[in-house]
Queue: 2 jobs
Job 1
Amino acid sequence: MSDGAPGTAGAGEPAVEATRISKSFGGVNALEQASFSARFGEVHALVGENGAGKSTMIKILGGRLRQDAGELHIKGRLAALHSPLDAHKFGVRTVFQELTLLPGMSVSENLLLNHEPRGAFGLINRRATDQKADALLADLGIHHIDPRALIEDISLAARQVVEIVRAISQDPDILFLDEPTSSLVEREAQWLFGHMRRLREAGKCVIFTSHRWAEIAGVCNRISIFRNGRDVGSFDEIDEDEAITLMTGRRLDSYFPARTEYTPAAPLLETRELSGRGLHDVSLSVAPGEIVGVGGLAGQGHRELFFTLFGADKATSGEIRIGGVAKAIRSPRDAIRAGIALVPEDRKSEGLLLPMPVRDNLTLAILPRIARLGVLPLGLERKLTSRIVDALKVRTPNVRNAVGNLSGGNQQKVLIGRWLLAEPSVFLLYDVTRGVDVATKREIYDLILRLAAENRAVLFYSSDAEELAHLSHRVLVMREGAVVSQLHNPGLSAEDVVSAAMKATLAS
Amino acid sequence: MQADRNQASLRASRSAHWIGRNIGLLLVFAILAAAIVLYCAIYFVQQNTLPGNFELTSTVNNTMPLAMSGLGQAIVILTRGIDLSVGGIMDFTNALAAIHMQDNPLSMVVWTAVVLGAGALGGLLNGLLVGYGRLQPILVTLATLSIFQGVALRVLPEPGGAIPPRYTAALVNTDQPYALLYVLAAALLWMALRRARIGVALFAVGNDEQSARAHGVDVVRTKVIAYTLSGLLAAAGGLCLAANATAGDATSGNGFTLTSIVAVVLGGISLFGGRGNMIGALAGAFVTTMIVNILFFAHIDPLYQSFYEGLFLIIAVVLGAALGGLLKRGRG
């Protein structure tokens, strides 16, 4: 139907061209002069590691984010996109990774918002709305979703399907899909690929991101690779190993201190068939002085594992043992008492009190221990906090400065420092270097090694495969809430970790 | 396949969907029915007869100010906002009507229109500040509450003025529960609103502003309309208040800021926006009046009235949450 529509170009003509796009969030560069282009008549995959800038690029092209620098051309015209609606005017529809459905409204209302069939007095005819939604779903071969159900009552996979149906049913010329298959089962993924091929044959342009090599190879006729916020190449044909090498690359700016060896000993932290929401029968052990990395693609249960170990998520079965003794850990309070510390990735919402001084943030976890009859001995507090600030090289004018004024990396150090004061024996580090500048990253690496050298058990998750490969004695790869493989150092490379993660998913 | 096997159970009947969406509404009507039964029982024990037309009429008339302001509050809360200025607008509008309204049809019509317009204007001010000014609703309406209260006292420093008896008779007939017609009209209006573009927009904005914008909903315009409607309905409540009292009082509206929120919460409308049915707020208003009636006939010391009102509210909300959770578990 779009044959005669204005602005529709034929196959082979440029659909989108993003030229030297930069975007940063609070000093962290998500995109640095990254370029990307796609043509009509192709299904184009955008691939890269977590944090490579794929989602940011798609959000900019979909009108959800505004670039700091760089130009966008859509269908050959310069595009200034202030909202997704502006993108719609160019015939662009986007299925964002965080779905944009309205949870308290029905499937049909979500599919047809602002396009509802109307009856008497211009009022919405609800029966017709449901029927039209039903027809839209049926046209695209979906029969298992009830148009009258509320979005919040249907499964995550069904919501993803509704989001995709909404985008496709609005007849886009250019369709962006950000990780569209992340919550779909194989059958639904095949359904989506069928429609992607159909759109390509109709001369449309489909751009999607994915971590699963099998589907990338199966459905794409062009691949662009992103790394560290930059584009590193576009290919019509590339094999998996080559792609992984490009995705991880050798980063010249990365530096890793030499791992210290540890003497095998009885495990300090141990789990036996630990299960919970999003977590299945995880058995692992970490010895004192050992650094165990946890890797895998995003959203495979790492977060659940760390939060369950810390008592913030509930375990449904299995046990956690510290020093060979089973501990009942039902809350972070229990975890702290058992000597477990968690440094989370999201410093703002899960750890620091930003408007409060560095000093108060540092002593938060040990207040009951240092207080005398409920009163804080200020001299002791000053001594303890100054020692940490010096030891961790926290760059702050003084300990009374609000934590919110510090850079991301220094905030992270304050958080680690808080736990150092509590002297836990087990450190859980969850993606602590995310969004941290290179110099501070090095200091954090040194700190991780020092924690191990002091005979603590360190379990750390990172979205950066290189970090895992270099710092860990062992790396556990997770998929769908379970540990599926184990890699041993020495000799481990980032490529090994990434390919283990991708193969794990491939096997599903 | 699994999906095909589930198809039958996924396609629940129309009524099942309706129940799923309107648990709060069903609950408030159940509470209302229970309150009416309790009221009748206490009344029968005390008076040896059942309540009649007089009791029905006075109950309905007493509920009108709250029903009107509750509807307005419900519209705003559906957008995930809150309107604390409701009480101030009712103060101001009932004072205005009591001072100016003369006992002739022209004056009554003109001043009804002026008073409603004044309320809508007050609401529009809230809407502009919240919508275009991107200010917190609670802050804006707390400030305008104070402003409207101040203006009301300037207009009518001491209780007084007069509402023509004919106006009272027309608005809230003292012999027959005519005011139920307004309730019916409000319910019909709601059904139309829910099917109009603005009604869908109210829900969409309350569900998720970002997503609503991505769907092409004009978020700012929707908020402005919501607060304006709330001001208009609060003014209608102010008129009912004046008609009931047959005079004006620049402080008599104050309590409605909180009771209108109570009516909305009792009516099963989520304070987090985007979920609920405005008819629930009407029923919630009637529940509130019935509680006062029950306390009166149970000979509870009037000084304890607000204590028991609060107690009932907590019980109702806890019951509602527990029942809602149970039903959800039953369905899931």
Job 2
Amino acid sequence: MTIAIPPQTTEPPVVAPNGDAPPGGHRAAPRPLVPPEVQRVGRARRVAAGVGYGVLGFVLLGLAWQFASTRAEGLPGPMKTFDTLFDLLSNGFVADGPDGQGILLQLRDSLVRVFKGFAMAAAIGIPAGIAIGRSRRLHQVFNPVIQLMRPVSPLAWYPIALTVLIQSDPASVWVIFMAAVWPVILNSAAGAMSVPSYQRDVARVFQFSRRTQLSQIVLPHAMPSIITGLRLSMGVAWMVIVAAEMLSAPSGIGFYVWQSYNGAGLRNVISAVIIIGAVGVALDFAFQALGRRITHEESHA
Amino acid sequence: MSLEVRGLWKGFLHGGEPQWVLRDVDLDARPGEFVSLIGHSGCGKSTLLNILGGLIAPDAGTVTLDGKPIEAPSPDRAMVFQSYSLLPRVSLVRNVQVAVSSARRDWSKEKVDATAERYLTGVNLWEHRDKKPYQLSGGMQQRCAVARAFAVEPRVLLLDEPFGALDALTRARLQTQLIELWSDESETETVVMVTHGIDEAILLSDRVVVMSNPPGPSVAEVIPVDIARPRDRVSVVDEPAFRFAQQELLDILHRDDARELEATA
């Protein structure tokens, strides 16, 4: 059996040295090069359009909010709320105001709790996840437990934590830990499992020590996945801290939301919601940037 | 003596049915010999190489190196893999040093460093020693992998389609470097290489082992290549022995192809 290879019919386009269309004229003239300053203008215009559409989204949200506030009794409109937000921010660091601690001090308390719980989750979750990803036996032992624990709302741990730890502050940190540790473990395990088989073979043929295997093969391959896990768990932690502080905490942004509901009013509640959202975006952005920096170096491997 | 394979069987379960990839394979590779394994994909040539490397265990049969059975990977049988298998985070010279110091724990640091320098120089990468793998082309990474394998001073070098992913010019250059390192620089005696390329197999090998798919025997034929070394890659194609081997290999591989088409028809 023979396979006929069709002759090549497409030749590379011929371009005369001066950039004109070649003689014969039946080919399309080469497209003129776009000068760099024109390219820059095009780029600036695209960025501006992107920002413009983003702003449009917020304008639409504001209009809907304004409309809702005219219909729903007690719901403050955007303008009044922003007045309150600016007041709150400008007195954000006042330690002893009419409503207690300033809102930025509350925010600081929440962030400290989140970072404590998150740091614990990372310190325990990354090694545990890598161990589970590396060992089939450990995976068999712990995977069912993890799958059972993972869908439990972290807030369900709060009464237990409060009973054992007595004080609400360590109890909220514990709840954050329980919320944050599962994504870290699962993604670290997935990362450790993603080591290509030929890299494992290299380790076997050249008889790498466990330490060399871990530092040179497992960690570089698992790192992007680990960063993803940390980012996911930070997102969960930030959602959970607000709820945990609403249950019982002496301070924090969640405490502030609940306290304002019982006192100062919805304007303060919505201001706090806006701040919570902005901080969440900032945290996520920071992890994305970190992930890009780390994977940039490794992904070329 | 040297590398001896006797009555080797290896199968995998495929939908509950065992499929014998390697069927009663006998093979010898003597000291100073370059042996190629060639065949259609799925014929088990990589499986055989991995068994020689000790990475997987056979179902039946024995593999011995100088009479000692092969049961686990060892730096005495260093391997070069098809994929670029360098450590991603460290420089080329560290890649070689880490492998050598892991594989040869009794060597002094001076000896490890000197060996790394010698073999990286041998593949013309010493000036790039401080670059990381991702800063280099695929061909350069594969040269480093070849240098790493030679640097642990193995008895046998096992190559799994080492040049498969490279362009023709890079492949030609690397083939020449491989032969030079093997014959002039290193103590390594025996080389076993898996390849798809008929011309590559003839150019480099003393014997070409043609492997076939089921139901025939795994080793269809062994073609000797009696061409004196050093071989010049341009003039070697005019040698009658080259033409003969090329024709033989084409015939066997096409015969195998035709039989498979009949079987599926």
